[in-house]
């Protein structure tokens, strides 16, 4: 279910037997990268392509970003870096955010992958590898500036900087940290993390600073350092809560109706009978469920759209199907094979995420394998 074409041809059954049709607009992705890179200037924008480029397919996404001028890539796991290394040439930097696990060091060095060193143990392991090879190895160094996730504390950073042999055999490419609240521009934690980052970075004055994620790029220019690390904004997610989305949507998702029916008042609908029709209702069953990444938390809460009309989810989301209340549509409107929208013009990624009690990131990275995936605008846009 993985094909590349310019647009969805109207005369094809749109989902071709798949659970639904997922379109990924590589032209919009490209425009989003270029806009973020311009916004970052004079810093550069890297691209975070972890989790298979937020579920959209790193093998399709990475070539577009390379063509758009991106030269720095971040993944989370070392296994992701090894998979992407052949796509991302040695003239580009490929960083692993989760750093080194014991035993990864030789393969990491052989592959030319750059670990983000998140603590003393990782620094020591990388130094040992460099010594063993009699080589200098590249690394990023992360500080924890207020998230308690990964990175050296300020005290540890001071100790490392004060030790003349602290980074022996290591060439620091960047120093970095990660913002915990960048999607909330008014959150005071941002300024606190910035101050801590500037303090830590001053200990390594020769090394470029890499700090802002998508949200950070929409805080003040102080957050941008030399290299920014956007992820979600590349893929059409809104980097800031409550503000208009500055980017272009990349993903649409529509799902086929497999059956429409009318039920009398009193009918229990779906698993557990959590919804009982209080009037005669018209229902449509669509061909996707939680196994396709439509969260079960949308049961009796979320909706799909057809022809500008909101169709509430009736009862629980099943593994492979969802029941919609289509009573609001004129009778006979929605037929077997018709496609309803889950993500698109009427329902953004953020809206479906909010209904599900989650965030756009989780919706994207959960998108299932059973959709027909159509990559639009695969060619570079002509200027
Ligand atoms: C995921 C991640 C990013 C990208 O964040 P977005 O909010 O998607 O832009 C950047 N840096 C680190 C350390 C991350 O884990």
TrEMBL record:
<dbReference type="InterPro" id="IPR009006">
    <property type="entry name" value="Ala_racemase/Decarboxylase_C"/>
</dbReference>
<protein>
    <recommendedName>
        <fullName>Alanine racemase</fullName>
        <ecNumber>5.1.1.1</ecNumber>
    </recommendedName>
</protein>
<feature type="binding site">
    <location>
        <position position="319"/>
    </location>
    <ligand>
        <name>substrate</name>
    </ligand>
</feature>
<keyword id="KW-0413">Isomerase</keyword>
<dbReference type="InterPro" id="IPR029066">
    <property type="entry name" value="PLP-binding_barrel"/>
</dbReference>
<dbReference type="Pfam" id="PF01168">
    <property type="entry name" value="Ala_racemase_N"/>
</dbReference>
<dbReference type="InterPro" id="IPR020622">
    <property type="entry name" value="Ala_racemase_pyridoxalP-BS"/>
</dbReference>
<dbReference type="InterPro" id="IPR000821">
    <property type="entry name" value="Ala_racemase"/>
</dbReference>
<feature type="domain" description="Alanine racemase C-terminal">
    <location>
        <begin position="250"/>
        <end position="376"/>
    </location>
</feature>
<dbReference type="GO" id="GO:0008784">
    <property type="term" value="F:alanine racemase activity"/>
</dbReference>
<dbReference type="GO" id="GO:0030632">
    <property type="term" value="P:D-alanine biosynthetic process"/>
</dbReference>
<comment type="function">
    <text>Catalyzes the interconversion of L-alanine and D-alanine. May also act on other amino acids.</text>
</comment>
<dbReference type="InterPro" id="IPR011079">
    <property type="entry name" value="Ala_racemase_C"/>
</dbReference>
<feature type="active site" description="Proton acceptor; specific for L-alanine">
    <location>
        <position position="271"/>
    </location>
</feature>
<comment type="similarity">
    <text>Belongs to the alanine racemase family.</text>
</comment>
<dbReference type="InterPro" id="IPR001608">
    <property type="entry name" value="Ala_racemase_N"/>
</dbReference>
<dbReference type="GO" id="GO:0030170">
    <property type="term" value="F:pyridoxal phosphate binding"/>
</dbReference>
<feature type="binding site">
    <location>
        <position position="149"/>
    </location>
    <ligand>
        <name>substrate</name>
    </ligand>
</feature>
<feature type="modified residue" description="N6-(pyridoxal phosphate)lysine">
    <location>
        <position position="50"/>
    </location>
</feature>
<keyword id="KW-0663">Pyridoxal phosphate</keyword>
<comment type="pathway">
    <text>Amino-acid biosynthesis; D-alanine biosynthesis; D-alanine from L-alanine: step 1/1.</text>
</comment>
<dbReference type="GO" id="GO:0005829">
    <property type="term" value="C:cytosol"/>
</dbReference>
<feature type="active site" description="Proton acceptor; specific for D-alanine">
    <location>
        <position position="50"/>
    </location>
</feature>
<dbReference type="Pfam" id="PF00842">
    <property type="entry name" value="Ala_racemase_C"/>
</dbReference>
